[in-house]
Amino acid sequence: MAADRGSAWHLLLSSLGLLVHLDATFSYLLKNCTSDRSLAGEVLDCSGRGLVTVPDDIPADACSVNLMCNLLGQINKKDFGKMSQLKILCLTDNHIAHVDDGSFVHMVSLTNLYMGQNNLTNLTANLLQGLSNLRLLDLRKNKIQFIHGSTFKFSSVLQTVLLDDNHLRQVADIIPVLQLPLLHRISVVCENWFSSSFQSEDFPANMSSSLKVLDMSSSNIDKFSITRRAFPHLQTIDLSLATLKWDIPDETSLRNIIRLHLSHTKLSFKEIQKVLQSTDSLVHLRLNSMDRWIKRGLMVTACRIPTLQVLELYYNHGPNLSAQLANCSHLRELDLSDTHMMLMPKGSIQSMKLLQNLKLKANFLKKVPDDIRSLSSLEILSVDSNSISELGCEDFRNTTRLTELYLSSNHITNLNWCTFESLTGLKILDLSLNQLWELGDVFQTGPQKLEFLYLNDNPLAILEKRSFKGLKCLKYLDVVTKTISRVTQRAFDGLNNLRALRVSFPCYFDSDFRHLQRLENLTLYFSVDGSFQSPPTNHHRAFFHLNSLKMFTFICSGFHHGMPFDVPMEQLQAMRHLEDFTAENAYISAPDPSTFQANPRLKRLTFGKTDLSDLDPELFRPIPDLQVLDLSNSQIKSLDFLKLVELPALTHLTLSNNEITVINETVFQSLPALVYLKLDNNPFTCDCSNAGFIQWVKNNNQTQVVNGYQLTCSFPVAEQGNRLLNFDIQSCWMDLSFLCFLCSTGLVTLTLLTSFIFHFLRWQLVYTFYLLLAFLYDSRKKKKGTAHLYDAFVSYNVHDEAWVYHEMLPVLEGEQGWRLCLHHRDFQPGRPIMENITDAIYGSRKTICVISRRYLQSEWCSREIQVASFRLFDEQKDVLVLLFLEDIPARQLSPFHRMRKLVKRRTYLSWPQAGRHHGVFWQNVRRALETGDAAADDRAELLTGPAGR
To answer: Any signal peptide, and if so, which residues (predicted)?
Structure first.
């Protein structure tokens, strides 16, 4: 299963081609996918997310979508409805059992469709509707039993169809595929399919397929028979692991076969011989794992094919394999990898004068075979993963055309100066993963055309002066190893054309790069052990001459003991063309703000395993063109430093594995070009402090927060493990500062209003309050209908009590005989005062108000006159008699709105105006009391005294 997934993914990547070259542009947040923008468009990876439906947020302009390894059960019409620009779609390894007809109708640009490892059983007539540009269709490992004759009518340009491991039972089932006009390859690999034979008679008589590659490996068909030219363009046949009878009576019917794969085949020896003898144009033959037939002399038949040029024999473990190759003198490529070869007998391949490519990988050779010395045409030699311990001066003496030599993963301990002396055309030399502890003078004189040299993972101790003096054309050198204890000065002298260098340094080094004027890519690995205290004070001088450097990677392993092995500004001063800088574990604190003062062209910057908690934003000011910034694993707690610097060109920002808990979304205002943001493994706080950031992540249409929906909460404890973007931010939208502003404004306004009312309208409000109480009592008493027990109720202030007792009572009760109600005498003890007042007023025919200044200021007097006035206005009867004991100006009645209104509308009696004529005064009072229940507005003016004061 893993191998199948890997194969599918390999096919997908191969199909991408130039699409893997990213132009560093990304877009928006996706719930279940990550997005890269390539030169051709958007590339989405939604694999391994446990999806049961196709995500609905896939952008319409996507050019590639990978949905493999999910739980999709079916494809609906709307799933890919708007993806007219999609070119590659991978649905491998799901549970798809049904695809709606027309599901791909809008995908007119699709070229590659991968649907392997699903549960499809039928290919319907309209399955591929709309796929007019489809080139590759992968349907491997489904349960397909039936292919409709019109399935491919919409895909006339289809070139590759993979139907391995399905439930097709006979050759006729694949006729709709074979009839494709531009078919290039069909694969029907399966151990249990095709119970019958594969015969040209089973195809329509007029069929002439354009098929070029037929893969029927692992098939159990009884017979492979082609008796007419049904496949005139067939070039490659794979019958590996097949059991069949070969029947090709007319050899001209396969005259175009140039590649034949018979690995692990179950054919008999005679059948294989028959196959090989029936092909007179074979160029490439694969016979892997064919030990049994090789022992019987199969190579004699194979080597007699005059056109054969490429022979693959890996996984054959026969002891006499190489001895049977003597007659294959016309070969150009030979693969003997993993054949358990311990020794290649002399003369085995000596006759192969045309051989250009020889692979002897993964064997047990202890030395370079002697026959190689005679292969003057050899250009590529692979002897990786053997047991070679020594290389001699004669090993490559005559292979002067050799351009590529691979010797990695052997046991080579040392090299003679003459080992590669004859390899004047060598361009690639791989000596990695050996046991070299010194180089000596092997590269003092050449190979002079060598361009790539791999020496990594060797136990080299010292790189001596001018170790590579003779490699004047070298462009790439890898000398990364953990064992180097010293790199001397001028160790790289002579490498005048070097473009890329990967090298390890010990704690101390005194080398320099003064001659590497064309070096563009430098990767330094420093190993720091317990003896390290600090770097040499002048170690930065080694880099003074790197004027062409564009990419500088500085990686330090080990513990610094508190001493920084940093990269000071002086070290970078000469690198004015630097575009990419990486420092891992190179600083114990944030670098000096002036570090990149001389590097204005820097576009990519990476710091790792560094404490950047005290990062000064001034560090970025000299590099305004920065596009990619990676500050992962750097103990960063806040992004506020981004507010203090402008990075207008920054598109990629990676901050994984830091200590960020809260992000203020305003920091991204200083990053107008940001399209990619990665924040994995940060301890986010899920509360309102992150509400703005959460909304920004969801709503911004420019920046893609990679795996945004997978970001988790660490705080508070109740939210721990929950998704950050699932936090409900609706309760956070009330702005606390604005709320405080409203509250404080309201409080101030209320205070001012209260003060104004108290100062200017105090008495009017008091009067209004009493008026309301009187109204309530009036309404209640009116309903009771109380009988008149008194002729008049006398309302007076206690300070006027003497006048009432000495002047009023003797006359009104004693002389005139009126029955008066006085509160001190007639109120019922124990009852509420207001009830007594109300009962007294409504229980009397009239109410006499004895008014004075003290009366107006009395609370109870005010209530009494209010109840009386309500009775007056409610019953519209003459029930109120006003007696003024003092002359009170109208302005002093202003706070008492009801009193002033009564005085203006009604005639009243004035004691001061009566003067000495008290008899007339009391006679007028009598007349007022004798007045009946006539309407107040209609009664005659019975009272004397001025009105409307």
So the answer is: 1-24
Query: Which residues fall within 8 angstroms of residue 455, CB to CB, at 6 or more apart?
Result: 431, 432, 436, 439, 477, 478, 479, 481
**DSSP string covering 378-416:** --EEE--SS---EE-TTTTSS-TT--EEE--SS---EE-
On whether the CB atoms of residues 26 and 35 are closer than 8 A, the answer is: yes
Q: Which of 652, 658, 696, 640 is nearest to 677 (CA)?
A: 652
What are the backbone dihedrals phi and psi of residue 568, each rounded to the nearest 5 degrees, phi first?
A: -70, 170
User: Containing H/E element for 246?
Assistant: strand 245-247
Q: Cis bond leading into 683, ω under 30°?
A: no
User: In angstroms, what CA-CA distances link 754 with 141, 239, 264, 768?
Assistant: 85, 102, 102, 16
Residues in the chain: 949
409/423 Cα distance (integer angstroms): 21
The helix (run of H) or strand (run of E) holding residue 8 is helix 2-16
DSSP 828: P
Alpha carbon distance 776, 152 (integer Å): 94
In whole angstroms, give the CA distance from residue 36 to residue 26. Answer: 5
- Domain locations in the chain as residue ranges: 1-119, 627-722, 762-930
The region, left, alpha or beta by phi > 0 then psi within -120 to 50, assigned to residue 221 is beta
CB proximity list for 940: less than 8 A, separation 6 or greater: none
Contact 577, 548 (CB under 8 A): yes
For residue 495, CA distances in Å to 49, 490, 761, 786, 945 come to 49, 10, 100, 126, 131
Q: How far apart are CA 2 and CA 342, in angstroms?
A: 32
State whether the Cα torsion 410-414-416-421 is positive or negative. Answer: positive
Question: How many CB atoms are closer than 10 A to CB 640?
Answer: 13
SS3 190: coil
CATH code of the region 762-930: 3.40.50.10140
Q: Would you place residue 942 in the very low, low, confident or very high pLDDT band (cuts 50, 70, 90)? A: very low
Distance CA 430, CA 425 (A): 15
Q: Which two tokens stand for residue 612?
A: 């950047």
Those residues whose C-beta lies under 8 Å from the C-beta of residue 339, and which sit 6 or more positions away, are: 313, 314, 315, 316, 317, 318, 321, 363
The torsion region of residue 340 among left (phi > 0), alpha (psi -120 to 50) and beta comes to left
DSSP letter for 51, please.
Answer: -
Q: What is the dihedral of CA 552, 557, 562, 568, to 10 degrees?
A: -10
Residue 633 neighbours by CB under 8 Å, 6+ apart: 608, 609, 610, 656, 657, 658
The predicted structure's pLDDT at residue 18: 35
CA dist 162 and 116 (Å) reads 9
Helical H segments across 650-690, by residue range: none
Which one of 258-272, 346-360, 518-532, 816-830 scores highest in mean pLDDT? 346-360
The CA distances from residue 688 to 498, 695, 707, 720, 724, in Å, are 55, 11, 21, 15, 11
Q: Do domains 1-119 and 627-722 have the same CATH topology?
A: yes
* Residue 11 banded pLDDT, cuts 50, 70, 90: very low
Q: What is the DSSP pairing of strand 604-608 with strand 628-630?
A: parallel
For the cut 70, the answer to whether the pLDDT of residue 665 exceeds it is yes
Q: In the 8-state DSSP scheme, what is residue 498?
A: -
- Residue 232 burial by CB count (10 A; 0-12/13-18/19+): exposed, middle or buried? middle
Q: Is 945 left (phi over 0), alpha (psi -120 to 50) or beta?
A: left
For domain 627-722, give its CATH number from 3.80.10.10, 3.30.450.20, 3.40.50.970, 2.40.128.50: 3.80.10.10
CA geometry: angle 619, 623, 626, nearest 5 deg: 110
Position 778 scores a pLDDT of 57
Fold of 1-119: 3.80.10
